[in-house]
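Reopening this one. Same input as before:
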Amino acid sequence: MSSNGLVNCIEVEGVTVSFDGRTVLQDIHWSVPCGSAAGIIGPNGGGKSTLLRTLIGTVRPDKGTVRIMGRTGRPSPGLLSYVPQNEEIAWHFPVSVFDVVLQGRLGKKKWWERISPEDREAAMAAIRRVRLEEHAFRPIGDLSGGQRQRALLARAVAQDAQIILLDEPATGLDATAQHDLLEILDEMRDEGKTIVATTHDLDCLTDHFDSVLCLRGRVVCQGVPRETLTPETLSLVFGRHVAVFTEQGEVTMIEHT
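Same output, byte for byte:
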C-alpha cells in the first residue's frame, strides 16, 4: 500500500538487473498506485525499457522482487498489457488493424480454443475506444504513425488488463497525434486503468501523469512531476543543464547541451 493509503498495482523492491556483467538497473525501489498514471524518464541507456521488460517478466532481475497486483512471477495477460516502441513492429506485414487488435485476445485463451464472436466484439470495442473504427479493416502499414500507435493501444485494451505499459508511445508523432494519444490515456486512467509510460517528452508529464520516476541506472528521484522536475534534478538525470520555465502554470523543459 502506498503512503497515501492507495493500493499499489506495481511494487518494485531492490531490483538490480545486469547484462553481460554490466549493471543496467541498480537497487530500484518504486511503486505505482492502482488507477494512476506514472511516467518514466531518463537518458538513452538509463534503464527505462529494461524496467518495463522486468515488469512484464521477459527480463529477470539479479536481485530484488517485482509484484504485480501483489503477485510475484510473470504476470498474466489479464493483469498487464504491453505496448512496444513503434520500431519494434514489422509494419509491412499484410494484416489489418482488426487482425492486430484481435491478437490481444489470444493471451486469454487456451491453445485449443478458437476465436469467439465475443473476442471479435471485444476487438471492435477496443478499436472504437481508440477512435479507429473507420480504419478497422485497412492494412495497418497504411496508417499514419499516430494511428498505428493507437492500434497498438487498442490491442492492449482488448486484453482487458488492469495495467497498461507503454514504451515511448509518443516518439515520432506530431503534436496532434500526441495530443490524441494522451487524451485517450487520460480517459483510461480516469476509468480506473493504471498507466505506465516511458517518455522523452518532458512537457506532457505535469498535465498527464500523477507521478514520475527519474532513472539513470538507479533512481535519481521520484514524485509528483511539478515538484520533482526541477533544473537541479533534470541535470542529475540527463547529465547536462536544463532550464525550467513556468508559463501560465505549466512547466516547460528546455535541455541545453
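So the earlier flakiness isn't reproducible anymore. For the record, Helices lie at 48-56, 97-102, 117-129, 145-158, 175-190, 205-208, 225-228, 231-238.
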